[in-house]
Amino acid sequence: MCEAGRLLTIQSHVATGYVGNRSATFPAQLLGWDVDAVNTVQFSNHTGYGRWGGLRFDEHHLTDVFDGLARNGLLTQNRVVTGYTPSPEALSAVERLIARLRATNPALVYLLDPVMGDMDRGMYVNPNVLPIYRRMLHLSTIICPNQFEAQLLAGQEITSLASLRAVQEKLHVEYRVPHVVITSLALPPDDLARLGASATMPDGQEAMVLVGSTWDHGLQSWFLQFPCLGEYFSGVGDLFAALVLARFATHLDDLPEPARAAHALEPAASADECTLPIARAVMLAVAALQHVLVRTRATMVEQGARLQLDPFRPVTQLDADERVRVMRLRELRIVQSASEILRPRVLYRPQWARS
Amino acid sequence: MCEAGRLLTIQSHVATGYVGNRSATFPAQLLGWDVDAVNTVQFSNHTGYGRWGGLRFDEHHLTDVFDGLARNGLLTQNRVVTGYTPSPEALSAVERLIARLRATNPALVYLLDPVMGDMDRGMYVNPNVLPIYRRMLHLSTIICPNQFEAQLLAGQEITSLASLRAVQEKLHVEYRVPHVVITSLALPPDDLARLGASATMPDGQEAMVLVGSTWDHGLQSWFLQFPCLGEYFSGVGDLFAALVLARFATHLDDLPEPARAAHALEPAASADECTLPIARAVMLAVAALQHVLVRTRATMVEQGARLQLDPFRPVTQLDADERVRVMRLRELRIVQSASEILRPRVLYRPQWARS
């Protein structure tokens, strides 16, 4: 049995601040989802602060919670999102749960965010999660890797349009992922131009390029570009993933009522615009995210000035106490952005990839 | 240092359903509070289901999380709410935290819900929590006991208006609690009448009588009565406590912007109406709660009919599987009631006690 409007998120919990489940839960609830949440850790604050209290939960505790749900017939969620998971053992417990959900509900929409690292820092989790994530790909509906994670999953670097295509095809065909959203992509300028994108926004700001694809008798590829704002903040990927999952809809009936309005009000703006359901969900997620980031950045700059702290200073240049204070300034202003999460103004729209 | 608009809640976490922090967090966030949450347990579902997975966290884990916050200067919340706490040891850890918060911020608003039992079931926690709760009373700003808990704390039964007054005075004067809200009170009809209240609503429905008091050079006592709707549902007290704390304001500036509108729009309706800040907060909390309960009850009846389950059957008459299904039907519809939580229609107003 499956309940419409019920979404499960399995991520970290921090007592204060917005990463993991703390970043995902409120926005999805705001959009009308009955959000179920299993916490994989309970920390005082996220680990970017440098110091924290609390603990990672082991696979026995997670399995015990999952089994409690199963025994009571409470695995009825029709959407699931998973993100950072603290150990290969815990991830295996999550894998078993998703397999169980998928088996009982073929229509399950599962968004897998395969959190492993990024281009700047490389792998920041136990490398033994990689084969587990690869195994989990066939259970997923949507995946949201960054370029680094997409490369790891496909076992192939992305250095050109051709190698991007190869990675997309591998994820769709070999690993049977319906929708792939590569959340940030660096390509040589010529390759970006052939895609239809560019490294800068029309006003000269540095651009992020997100590339999405869906497999439907062949590769359907699109991209979205928007100003780069998120580099200082933690929890952005978790918020993005939750918003995409909460917004994704083949039919408006798939969504709780509060999530419908923004969809209904946003007709395609041009013939080049990609109107695939996943592209629409990403468009609305990015729009909300940009509001949150603009507000977070403004508050951070204002409070930093008041506290005589430079919020942009690299963490490596800060002593332990300064680092904590700077990380605090960078916490996402999610609660303050409730109305924009619900009704975001769309400035950036997804375009079909040109080649 | 203290941050306006930051509220800490220390309660249970369930993966699915609405009790403890799951009942408290979303409504307070909706009202604009940056909610910090420490979970004292992680269960699959609340224990009323009869079966569950997960664990109670011990005092070491809780202390570790609290210490992480303290070490990082993150105990800046200016509001705190605590509810059910699983053991005397865990409650002692909470007590030490509140003492620390109170010492650094004399303006802290702390709502203590001394969850111990009720008139029907008696004491349902370890009795060793009682002396700890008594010690914690002088740290509190507001307490929300039911009649059973108020009696335990004061060490005196409430059987008449005179003994009610004695209990209120004891809590205010001996235990130095500024605001006492006794959430349900059964008194002989004559005593209710002398208070100004009655056991039934004007339309004949059974009434709940809530009695509040504030000590300000003497006892200022008031009451609120409203239809009895909550008896089948779990998490109602946790939702009520969070709403009272999120709504309580001596000045409108004390509240985040989303919480202000309902206050500003509700002038006193009569000369008998009590306009103490705590009575206004309770009025708005009860109004929101009634919306949630009416919606929950309607959904429960409708789904019960569809599933051929009687949602009102006492738990003791159900086998284990039926019990789980009935408890599921009774989960609060909090997410679905977002707009009424934000802007509740006020039907029941607090009146000054007559004698």
TrEMBL record, chains A, B:
<keyword id="KW-0067">ATP-binding</keyword>
<feature type="domain" description="Pyridoxamine kinase/Phosphomethylpyrimidine kinase">
    <location>
        <begin position="88"/>
        <end position="187"/>
    </location>
</feature>
<keyword id="KW-0547">Nucleotide-binding</keyword>
<keyword id="KW-0808">Transferase</keyword>
<dbReference type="GO" id="GO:0005829">
    <property type="term" value="C:cytosol"/>
</dbReference>
<dbReference type="InterPro" id="IPR004625">
    <property type="entry name" value="PyrdxlKinase"/>
</dbReference>
<comment type="similarity">
    <text>Belongs to the pyridoxine kinase family.</text>
</comment>
<protein>
    <recommendedName>
        <fullName>pyridoxal kinase</fullName>
        <ecNumber>2.7.1.35</ecNumber>
    </recommendedName>
</protein>
<dbReference type="GO" id="GO:0005524">
    <property type="term" value="F:ATP binding"/>
</dbReference>
<dbReference type="GO" id="GO:0009443">
    <property type="term" value="P:pyridoxal 5'-phosphate salvage"/>
</dbReference>
<keyword id="KW-0418">Kinase</keyword>
<dbReference type="InterPro" id="IPR029056">
    <property type="entry name" value="Ribokinase-like"/>
</dbReference>
<dbReference type="GO" id="GO:0008478">
    <property type="term" value="F:pyridoxal kinase activity"/>
</dbReference>
<dbReference type="Pfam" id="PF08543">
    <property type="entry name" value="Phos_pyr_kin"/>
</dbReference>
<dbReference type="InterPro" id="IPR013749">
    <property type="entry name" value="PM/HMP-P_kinase-1"/>
</dbReference>
